[in-house]
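Bench notes, afternoon.
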Amino acid sequence: MPRLVKARSKKTGLPPGALVHIGERRAEKTRITLLEYDDAQVEEREIKDFRECPKLEGKPTVTWINVIGLHDVELLQKMGDCFGLHPLVLEDILNTDQRPKLEDYEDYLYIVLKMLHADDRTSEQVSLVLGPNFVLSFQETEGDVFEPVKERLKSGKGRIRKFGADYLAYALLDCIVDRYFGVLEKLSEGIELLEEQLVATPTRATLRAIHSLKVEMILLTRSVWPLREVISSLQRGESPLIKEPTTLYLRDVYDHTIHVMDTIETSRDIVTGMLDIYLSSVSNRLNEVMKVLTIIATIFMPLTFIVGVYGMNFEKLWPDVAEPWAFWLVMLAMAGIGLAMLAYFKKRKWL
């Protein structure tokens, strides 16, 4: 089950902008790849030392630097110095429990969002920094989510090499949002199987599965709901870094986020209804068991009464048993006890 909150105790008492990695170390070492392209060519290489940081001023190409692994604080500090990133931006990149958001630093835009993995149902934080002619992306783990973008750049298909860095940022956002649909498909399959099990034979394992689905729905809502606002701000074109042609494509991503959000709301309502169905099924099963036990007890009550009365040893128990009033006195005592119990039950409002 995914964790909804990550521990932030390491940052307690530290000043704003203090660089501390919060989250799990998901990569063995930090790996940085650089990809430069224009309309005619594409060049890709790996950066070993950030002293190789390119001077981007005046370069006609678009530069995309992808960082995998966020635990190397010193390396990220050098990268921030190279591109002039604000310390608060580096702090947010290292804090992997951020809410999806967009921050405008005039010279560049900082975007945070969540990338979801359908296979193991986990999430990771992805940070994007969009500049005039560069895009910086930061991932927690190695993955192939951006491979389609790289393939389009290398093959020259589509518009990506004809447009600027803002279109590249759009393409990366679109890859992440499209991944949400795969996660929702997996969840829908799990919900359908769970519904069949719920109707047939609900067990404690069914209840645990419903609880796990509710947690995943909360995670999805936290990931997608704020992202809708981020995409909406981008497609309004409030920043000069976002060109008019790119805003048209950002509207399409915005529509996708709305579709994902509607699907999540529907699935969450279904899961909530499944919990009610489970409780009703368990209650009905208990009622059936109690019905059978009540029938058995009702059948044996008069039999037990008769056996109990005629099974008493009156001669040894009661010396005056020969008297004609002795039997009726015992009956009267039994009736009195029953009436006293009924009166007590009514007084306690049990009846």
